[in-house]
Write a structure and sequence with these properties.
The complex is a heterodimer. Chain A is α/β, with parallel strands linked by helices. Chain A has a domain at 8-93 and 168-254: Rossmann fold (3-Layer(aba) Sandwich). Chain A contains eight helices and ten strands. Chain A has helices at 48-55, 78-83, 101-105, 121-134, 151-164, 181-197, 209-215, 238-254; strands at residues 8-19, 22-33, 37-42, 63-68, 71-73, 86-90, 169-173, 201-205, 218-223, 226-232. A six-stranded mixed sheet of chain A has the order 6-7-8-3-9-10, with helices on both faces. A four-stranded antiparallel sheet of chain A has the order 2-1-4-5, with helices on one face. In chain A, α5 runs parallel beside α6 (181-197). Chain B is mainly alpha-helical. Chain B has a single domain, classed as Orthogonal Bundle (ABC transporter involved in vitamin B12 uptake, BtuC). In chain B, α3 (60-85) packs antiparallel against α11 and α5 packs antiparallel against α11. Chain B is globular and about 65 Å long. Classes of the chains: A alpha/beta, B mainly alpha.
Chain lengths: 255, 341
Amino acid sequence: MSGNAKTEAIRAESIVKRFGSVLALNGVSIRVERGETLGILGDNGAGKSTLIKILTGFHQPDSGQVFVNGTPVTLNSVDHARSLGIECVYQDLALVNTLSVYHNMFLNRELRKPFLGLLDHAEMRRQAAAALDDIGVGVPSVRAEVARLSGGQRQAIAVARAVHTNARILLLDEPLAAMGAREAGLIIDLIDRLRSRGDIAIAMIAHNYAQTLDICDRVVLVQHGEITFESHSTETSVEELLEVVRREYRAARRA
Amino acid sequence: MSTNSGRAGGAQAAAPAAAGLRGLRHAVSGFLVWREASVILVAVLLILYFELTNANFLTNANIVTVSQFVAAPAIIACGEIMLLICKEIDLSAGQTFALAPFLVYFGAKFGLPVIPAILVALLICASIGLSIGLITVLLDVPSFVTTLGAFFLITGITLTISRGFPATPPGGHVLAGILGAFGYSEIIWAFLIVFGTHVLLRHTRWGLHTSATGGNELAAAEAGINVKRIKVGNFILVAVLAGFTGIIEAYRVGSNDPLAGGANMMFFGVASGVIGGTALTGGSGTIIGGLIGAIVLGVLQDGFTLQGINAFLFDGIIGAAILIAMIVNIRLALWQRGTVR
């Protein structure tokens, strides 16, 4: 699992998606490699979420093709995408607040004892603690109720769970929204560590240009259902991104 | 950020000199992190109060009486707690409670031996729970409304088939004794069912998925849990437990009463759960807490009866006592979590 041999994890070619008369995606192509983090920027309603939902199998494209590990696939459901190692982590939907950290980590994949099939709490605690340690997520105790943890810790646990259950293509829907600097730092560190493992491809929707350029290897800008800008993070700047957005905004106003 | 994940409360004090004191402190703090701690404290205080003010409180005869106050709400609470945890409620449990002994009675009258008649009655209760559950989850009717409808519907059925008259439960002395007529049999059933439901909630996937469903239905469904199945299953559980309680209560009293149970029984079950720490908002609850909640309610009823409280004032005193006991309980629980302000 070396990080230097970059290979394609997921690719979407010329994706078109309509909802009635609304053209949500008009021929969008993206590609994320193993060990790479892609930032997807854009206004509300630009089509970012539709794109992510096509990659998770929630929506099916009207035309275009998705490739996983270079093989063309038709993602017909969320479960199907998950079975191929594609997992989306949503900020609010991910965890059950009233359950402990380790119960959340093993939700619906519980470990059981041979005796009557009762839950093996001790083994789940041990494995959950090991999995969290492994990717460097610190929590006071795996027994703690998730409700008592901070937003950043919750998000980190949701990501850790996805990785623990073999997700190799991680889609993060606004992982840094509504987080203070310290909390955001927690997630940024986690994303960095996952990237350095080299075997996980990450695509994240984000709003903060500076943060995104900082975290991601590459960024794409989605506007009115098309990718209008694409660059390596080191080769662009917040100013350039803003200029692209400003140009589009002026054009839209004139029209 | 500390990273000593999941090793809380493991160490044991070993130095012989300070071991005793440290052991005690360990036990006390261990007790206080236990969720049911505050309600246990309230129950103990109430028992002490009634024992100190009344010579007959902790006598065998009175303990039997208290146990009979406690048993039925404790069993109903087991079912209601499971439902409350997955964010539903069954208002009709007290009605199923009244119907079930008549189902046994008519089963026996149609020639079934008593035990098969009981099993058939419980099967019918299960189908009531199934219908309530399906209407709730498939038609998206809030369970408060579904079970309010069922509340009146089942009363109507019980009154119609009984024609409003009581009946004598069928079967010999031994069976009647095992089911409820022997002084302690009802509370023994209650303990068995509490134990079983506790294991169900804490040590099986069903219980964990019930908590997940009530805690965050979307997240549970996202993880692949069939939340509708969980809810329907728990509606069936409540109905069967309520029916069974109605049957053993009928054997204890020696008569089927078409007006037994009702809203009172259901509210005692729900109240036992809530007093024991089950949240009305779903996602968390404890069966053991429900049992202790039922003990608190039973002790209050029995204790004030022994003290010869004026019959007209009785409900008022019970109400005030429940309020005071619960204020103490909630303040204790907040203090124990260190969130008191």
